């Protein structure tokens, strides 16, 4: 799990920042290259369509396929330094901190950090 730590309250290393930026750029550049998983009628147990990963039950095959292609089975890679809440997506953590859901730094301080990081990155 990678705790995202930014600015004065956070101690994010350049390695962590680079990891986050690269991950964001990679996902932004190739949104349709992600492999898709599809269930078939074989997933029907007589009452529901069952997820083979988490044993979740769905009334429709379409719902099971949406579930399989969501991030629900992804690991929680990010955690908030303020409250410890865990997130699967970097964007969810940024939103959490930006909206001060737990006393986070808020949009203005987060924006300043991102701008400063961008300027530093351009100089190096």
UniProtKB/TrEMBL annotation:
GO terms for molecular function: zinc ion binding. InterPro entries: Znf_C2H2_sf, Znf_C2H2_type. Residues 78-96 form the C2H2-type domain. SMART domains: ZnF_C2H2. SUPFAM superfamilies: beta-beta-alpha zinc fingers (SSF57667). PROSITE patterns: ZINC_FINGER_C2H2_2 (PS50157). The keyword ATP-binding does not apply. Keywords: Metal-binding, Zinc, Zinc-finger. It comes from the Eukaryota. Gene3D superfamilies: Classic Zinc Finger (3.30.160.60). This is C2H2-type domain-containing protein. It comes from Ceratopteris richardii (Triangle waterfern).
């Amino acid at each position: 799990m990678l705790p995202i730590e930014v600015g004065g309250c956070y101690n994010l290393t350049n390695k962590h920042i680079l990891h986050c930026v690269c991950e964001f750029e990679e996902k932004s550049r190739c949104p349709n290259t992600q492999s898709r998983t599809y269930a078939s009628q074989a997933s029907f147990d007589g009452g529901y369509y069952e997820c083979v990963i988490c044993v979740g039950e769905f009334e429709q095959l379409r719902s099971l396929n949406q579930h399989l292609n969501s991030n629900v089975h992804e690991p929680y890679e990010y955690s908030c330094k303020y409250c410890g809440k865990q997130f699967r997506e970097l964007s969810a953590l940024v939103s959490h901190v930006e909206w001060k859901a737990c006393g986070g730094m808020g949009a203005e301080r987060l924006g300043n950090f991102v701008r400063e990081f961008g300027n530093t990155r351009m100089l190096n």
